[in-house]
What we know:
0% strand, mainly alpha
Amino acid sequence: MGILGWIVFGLVIGALAKLLMPGKDPGGIIVTMLLGIVGSVLGGFLGQTLGLYGPGDAAGFVMSLLGAILLLVIYRMATGNRRTITT
Length: 87
């Protein structure tokens, strides 16, 4: 799959991750979808590198979704308690 395919696939995975983890994200839907792209690429690459599945296998979808959810959880933990201070 080419880089454009990973981007489109990541957008879909990011939207699914957002549906599976509802709530208010600090960055909104755009950041969530960008995290989906990164999670998709990292999860897919990691699974193929470890030899868990080959290119085009259905397990790639699951690994990509898990990668996106993991990044979304990390992002929420890192930015969840931030408050803006106005003077």
